[in-house]
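Hey L., structure's done. Input below.
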Amino acid sequence: MAFEQYFRAVVEGKRSGPDAVLLRFLLLIFSIPYGLVLQLRVLAYAWGLFQSYRLSKPVISVGNITVGGTGKTPMVALLASYCISRGKRVAVLSRGYGGSLHGEIRLVSDGREIFLTPGEAGDEPFMLATRIPGLMVVIGPDRYKAGLFAQEQLDPDIFILDDGFQHLRLNRDLNILLLNRAKPFGNGCVLPAGLLREYRSAAKRADLVIYTRCGNEEPYNHFPGIPFCRATHKIAEAIPLGGNSLAPLSRLEALRGMAFAGIAEPASFFNMLEEAGLKISEKMAFPDHCRYGEKEISEIVLQKKSVGADYLITTEKDAVKLSPYLKELGDIYAAVLEMEIQDMKELADAVEKLL
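Output:
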C-alpha cells in the first residue's frame, strides 16, 4: 500500500523532493511509447486491421479513461436496475479482474443462483450479482466470447459491458464514458507518468459523458459536441454483515466508527462517510482489490481496539470478501453507495432507444 500511495502522490504532484522529480521524469519517458501503442491500437481497429464483433442484442458499455475512482460499478448497477425494471433480461459482461478465475469465461449468476465466490469471480462481478435480483453476470477477458456464451446459455435482452471503454473488440450500441468532475484527466499524462489509460482525445468515441462526484458543483463540459449528464454519489444506508436488512445511518451517528477500504480512492469513501454524518475515529486504506487474509484482519481488529471504535464500516466491494472473519471483526457494516443522475433525461432517452 505504501508504494501505491507513493506512486499516486508522485504522479499527482503531491511530492516535490528530488526523488519524486527524477521518478516523474523516468515515468514520462516510459509513457511515450505506451501512449503511442494505444493510439496505434485504436487506429488498427478504425482501419479494420483488428476486427470488432457485434452481438445479436444491444450492448451498453460503461467505462473510463483513468485508473479507478469514477464510480463504474454504481453506474453499472444503476443501468442494470433500470433495464430490469423495464422487464428486460440483463447480462453484465465483466473482465473478472482480481478473481482467481481471471482469464476464463465463467457464469457468476444466472439471475437466480450465484455459482462463484468473490475470490473466484472478482469483487465487482460478485457484488453486482448479489446486490441486484435477477441480474445475470458472466466474466471473461474476451467480452465478445463471453457475450456469445451468455447468448447461448442465458438469452438476455441487453448486455452491459463493465469497464468496456478500451475493449474495442466488442461493438457497442451506447458508449458511456465516466469522468470524475474534480480531476477528469488526472495530470494529463498516460500511464505510467499519469493515471490516464489513454489520451483524453479518446473521449470522442463516447456517445454520452457522465461527470461523476459532482456534488453541488457544476462540471465544466470538456466535450461540447457530446451529450452529458451529472451524477453524484452518496451513502444513504448500511448493511450489517451477517444480516440482510438495511440500517439507516442515523443508527450509527452517535457511535464512534472505524472505516477501512481496499479501493482505488479510499479517501473519497471516507469523506462520504463523514459527509453522511458519521463519526469516523480511524481510517485504514488497503490496496485496490485487496484480498483480505489473517494479516489484514489482525491489523483491523488491533486498530479498532486501539482507537476504541464501536463498529467497523467498509465498502460493499470489500464486504463480500469478509464473511470468513465476521466473528473476529465484530459489529461491522457495509455502506451502500448509490449513484444519482441529476439530469436523467439524456441517459434515459439513450437507453430507451435500445430497449
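The longest strand covers residues 228-240. The domain at 233-338 is CATH 3.40.50 (Rossmann fold).

-- N.
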